[in-house]
Amino acid sequence: MTPVVQMRGVTKVYRSGSGSRTVEVRALAGVDLSIYPGEYVALMGPSGSGKSTLMHIIGLLDTPTEGEYWLGGEPVRGLSEAQLARIRNQRVGFVFQAFFLLPRLTALHNVALPLVYRGLPLAERLKRAKAALEAVGLGDRLDHLPSELSGGQKQRVAIARALVQEPDLLLADEPTGNLDSRSSDEILGLFDALHRQGKTIVMVTHEPDVGARAQRIVRLRDGRVADGGMV
Ligand SMILES: Nc1ncnc2c1ncn2[C@@H]1O[C@H](COP(=O)(O)OP(=O)(O)OP(=O)(O)O)[C@@H](O)[C@H]1O
Ligand SMILES: [Mg+2]
């Protein structure tokens, strides 16, 4: 079976400042990692160990400094920004701690937005967005603005927006970090259900009981996979 994610020796060096004040941070220092279709992986590790950096590279929001990455068997090296953006749009769904919903758009229009790049007619975009919101239990909140929703509901809208494109890979960076325990449970239940439906999920979390719900825990330490990379 072709891995959804395959990495060999991936490094990421950030450079900040300029001239004699240039500072280099080696956020990833040689990551080897495989993730197969249908897996639910928790990415854990101390603050600063490179979890978000790795998620950005997995999701094509950023590219490695060195090393090789294949997404769905296709090498990422050498792709242009436009090619990366197209693949990202079609194959990866993101959910972040801070939701990132557009405040002036209703739940329905927030979820429909990514489909604009598919060139679908408006009626079809809205139909798919409605179905995605129904799938996360928000069929009765279509016309609410983000400010009219609870934190857990906002995160469900964000999940619907990630799912509306039917991505190969769902990436979530601390999706329950801003939620109370009841809303967190609902969101985690939703991820459990998505896993049962066969979705491939990678979730960053600090909480051991959240990580325990995944099938596999990948532990990062100092920019390397300390455990669970399964290469
Ligand atoms: N854009 C950037 N420019 C420079 N350095 C960065 C940048 N992003 C991250 N870093 C550095 O890279 C390292 C890894 O950061 P990263 O955000 O991946 O950690 P993390 O494991 O997600 O931490 P947390 O649990 O606190 O979210 C840190 O030392 C951080 O300061
Ligand atoms: Mg982070």
UniProtKB/TrEMBL annotation:
Matching InterPro entries: AAA+_ATPase, ABC_transporter-like_ATP-bd, ABC_transporter-like_CS, ABC_transpr_LolD-like, MacB-like_ATP-bd, P-loop_NTPase
Domain ABC transporter residue range list: 5-231
GO cellular component terms attached to this protein's record: membrane protein complex; plasma membrane
Entry GO MF terms: ATP binding; ATP hydrolysis activity; transmembrane transporter activity
Superkingdom of source: Bacteria
Alphabetized UniProt keyword annotations: ATP-binding, Hydrolase, Nucleotide-binding, Transport
Enzyme class: hydrolase
Hydrolase found in the keyword field: yes
EC code: 3.6.3.-
Name of the protein in question: Putative ABC transporter ATP-binding protein YknY
